[in-house]
Amino acid sequence: MEPRESWAALAAGGVAGVCVDLILFPLDTVKTRLQSPQGFRKAGGFRGIYAGVPSTAIGSFPNAAVFFITYENVKSMLHHGSASYLAPATHMVAASLAEVVACLIRVPSEVVKQRAQVSPSSSTLQILSRTLYHEGIQGLYRGYKSTVLREIPFSLVQFPLWEFLKDLWSWKQGHVVDSWQSAVCGAFAGGFAAAVTTPLDVAKTRIMLAKAGSSNASGNVLAALGSIWRTQGLLGLFAGVVPRMAGISLGGFIFLGTYEKTRQLLL
Q: How crowded is residue 137: how many other Cβ atoms within 10 Å of its Cβ?
């Protein structure tokens, strides 16, 4: 992959990340509060719907930029000389590695954001200071494992499906898809991936919001899923599935469409 292409992937990814995270922030807040152990109303209901937005605004660009520069570089390296039938596996490996790297930036931002979303009376800076005072840097990485365990299955579904739908559409019409067509493919791929990975998202939310010293604070994803299943059953595991699907479908449209368009403009 040439340096120009790498810079284009980095810039396009960053722009796409900022656009989608800020536009869909209210929907993300509703989803987080639906998944909160204290319940939607006690977590803030529809009040302070933009609580935690500074954390997202700061973290979005580097998070998405790092994801896409890793994804495109790994994909480029693995594609070189490999057979076409291995393309889905290539996309899976590239997306998984990109998620592991991007989560180093995403998780601290996500921890502060989610805690602010369920405590709308506290500012983002207060949440950050409180987390560092009581838990140290470790507190900012609470839920790193659960986030990676959510994001890898999500990307294993979303990116190969996105690439497949783009290839299929390109083949049907006889030329490469436009950025809006790529966005439509991203919406379908994102919505489907969001639905099947919702239980992992609920577990991740519970772990990030858990009080220090509680059982969920240990970060054990299976234990968190088991606890949700025992207390709330299937409905608990799929709490917030509708806003999650709606947000990620719309997010996939904006994110992947913006990425393709910006990348085309830069190359």
A: 9
